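Late entry, written up from scratch paper. The run itself happened at the end of the previous shift, but nothing got recorded in the book at the time, so transcribing now.
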Amino acid sequence: MRRRAAFPVAMLALVVGALAFRLPALQNRPFHGDEAVHAFKFLELWRHGVYRYDPNEFHGPTLYYAALPSVLIHGRRALSDCSESDFRLPIALFGAAMVLLISPLSSGLGRRAVLLASLLTALSPALVFYSRYFIQETLFAFFTLSVIVCTWQYMRSKRSGWLILAAIAAGLTIATKETAVLSFGAMVAALVLTRLWNRRVDSASSSPFVALPAGLSAHSQLLRRSSAVSRAPEGHLAEGPLAKTFTSSRMRMFEDTRAGLIASCVITALVVACLFISGFGTNHVGPLGVLTGPVDYLRSFTPWLQRARGVSAHIYPWHFYLDLLIWTHHGRGPVYSEALIVVLAVAGIVSALLPVSRTGFDGDRSLARFLAFFTICLLALYSAIPYKTPWCLISFLNGLILLAGIGVVAILRAIRSGPGRVVVAGALIAATIQLGMQSFRASFQAETDPANPYVYAQPVPDVVNLARWCSDVEQYSGAGQDMIVKVLWTDDYYWPIPWYMRRFNNVGYYHDAGDPTAALVLASPEFEDQLALKLDKTHVMARFFRIRPGVFAEAWVRMDVWEQYLKRRPRPVDTD
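Output as recorded:
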């Protein structure tokens, strides 16, 4: 009884540990530009109950629906009342839930492998960092993993409920991000490769993961029996027309059942995806009606394919993701490395692919091989696409971590001597502690440091000072939150400024300095000469703020507001 209870207790302890890394100080990092964009996209759903899919930006809506409970539970009434924590909280919870989501795979991978994989999931610096980010990637990884876990449970238990959950998870994966096609493509390729590998290496496999779906295995047995009857010696039933009729009818039943199950799964996944993408029917523009969102989803692949081919600023070499995971070192900054996971994953892949007689892995070989091929295919796909952003590595990092759990077990089994196992176990413990230290540093100490490999186009803390300073100036404008603010920027990438100006009711965004008249003007330095000519007599360039590394905003304040600010603002307290 105690041994049975040890596994769930250990899993719950790991979930608590994962939460300890993900929940504290969710507001400590300034809102990323992408997070701010998503917060404003969420605003339409929150205020009006309407979601409209955009084929050019933003990805799918599950992120916004996930944020709704958090905002409502916190009692927020307007965007100005919301904090960064409100939006990041549901993502942190999903990130920690991935630890628990792995546990059903213990029936195929073994409890030790799953416990070790769960530990690495809880501590992985990349998973921790992006679980504190209001973007789609953590949700996407969670739903993708859910498809695999539920399908595995269905294959071994033959309970249709798991199949329904797998289809629902597939629909949510589609509704989260368009790169679902890559994940599903990798799954199909992995399933085919696993079957081929089993035949070549082990001749046959009794694994439920490559067996026929529930309800089909019984029919296949009948087919084999009927085939055996048809091959019976002369004078038996095989020679009569009844046997041939029996065999053909069973074959048709087998094919019909298989087609029906596949069709049911596909329909369920598509219905779930369409419900979310259509905003549950709220997006019905033009003659397409409620199909507007799903059709736009299909149209979205045109701009995304252009970016994938390299029409973007986010172009990096094929080894970009491996570099991030294995070794990152900038200047005098610390070394960041999740090489432990990569090395153990390689060991897990080798152990899974070896013949059963030569491997230390004693779990379901087909499941392990599927995970190996799925992870390799998905990594290859993401590496081959020139367009890369660091958070995309989460998609295949889950697979690497599961394989790492297999790898640890295989290594310990391969080492015969007790002292050798102690040395290896000690080294693994030390490396795991180092992963935890990196996670703490990346998410709580260097959360905006460019030397942090997971920081990407990250706004700097000075953008928070901009918001506070503008709020101070507003008190002396005579208009309060209705003070007119104009933001002049050369392009549309002025984010996250709108998030930090969300308290103001009259903020406009412009790409030229045609009419800069306003109580407060925030402008990129490119407009300095034009503003100096137009505002020299009426405004003062009071300050400038850093928005992102190398990106600044100048603050021009109307003279009467500035004079009141200087005259009436509280004086600093003399501490001498």
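The first strand starts at residue 484 and ends at 488.
(Scratch paper discarded after transcription.)
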